[in-house]
Amino acid sequence: MRGIVELAAGVHQLTAQAGVNVVVLRDDDGVTLVDTGLDRPGLSARLAQLGIAPADVTRILLTHAHHDHTGGVAHLRRAGCDAEVAIGEDEVAIAEGRASFPPAERRGARLISRLPKPGAWGRTVTVPQVTALADGQVLGVAGGLEVVATPGHTVGHMAFHLPAHDVVIGGDVVFNLFTLTPSPAFLCWRTAPNLASIARLASLGAGTLALAHGAPVTSDASARLSQLVADR
């Protein structure tokens, strides 16, 4: 299907808006979304291609609190979704609007907002009643979903590991828009911890890597991540 890539049984990466991806996990426990894209049209139509209505979504996991990951929560709410929403414990206050991004992240957000078709990707979108995710936590999703702290792009960025499916969901730790590359320095809170986070994802040994921006890596993902670290 156009704009949808099946990564494993019940695991799909879909394009919610141009250049912005969401991962869908579907099992007996229901439908889980990892990130939600922007608060713009696109997500509901993509979900419909998989036979999923907004009201069918039971859980939303956010890799971090940037607007191109949290904005779609509002879109889904307006369409009848009442799913619980969770994010890394260091970004709960940011997601709920009780705190601001660190200054380094705000600089990147201002640059992004000047791109064509401004939608202020970096703008904070309030997501009420968010629950906290902790490093090492395992959720009963898709055969066991492991929460992996991956700071660098933001202070509280989280990735997710699906050992049963040999898949890692990397969020913005790396981009794959033209080639696989670490999150650009001007978008990062800190580049050194982001590089360490790439190494941590590589150590998981997964063959497939889903990403928020760009095509998924569908073979030798761990080796390619290790090479990124070695090249730097």
Q: What characteristics describe this protein?
A:
232 residues; alpha/beta; Metallo-beta-lactamase, Chain A; seven-stranded mixed β-sheet; 6 helices
Give the overall form. Answer: globular
Write the CATH fold name.
Answer: Metallo-beta-lactamase, Chain A
Strand proportion, as a percent range, falls in: 25-35%
Number of discrete helical segments: 6
Count of extended strands: 14
Percent helix, as a range, is: 10-25%
Rg computed from alpha carbons, rounded to a whole number of angstroms = 16 Å
Mind telling me which CATH architecture this is? 4-Layer Sandwich
Give me the strand/helix succession: EEEEHEHEHHEEEEEEEHEH
Describe the structure.
This protein has 232 residues and is α/β, with parallel strands linked by helices. The chain has a single domain, classed as Ribonuclease Z/Hydroxyacylglutathione hydrolase-like (Metallo-beta-lactamase, Chain A), CATH 3.60.15.10. It has helices spanning 43-49, 67-78, 92-95, 103-112, 191-203, 221-231, and strands at 4-8, 11-17, 20-27, 30-34, 57-62, 84-88, 130-133, 138-139, 145-149, 158-162, 167-169, 174-175, 181-182, 208-210. Helix 5 runs antiparallel to helix 6.
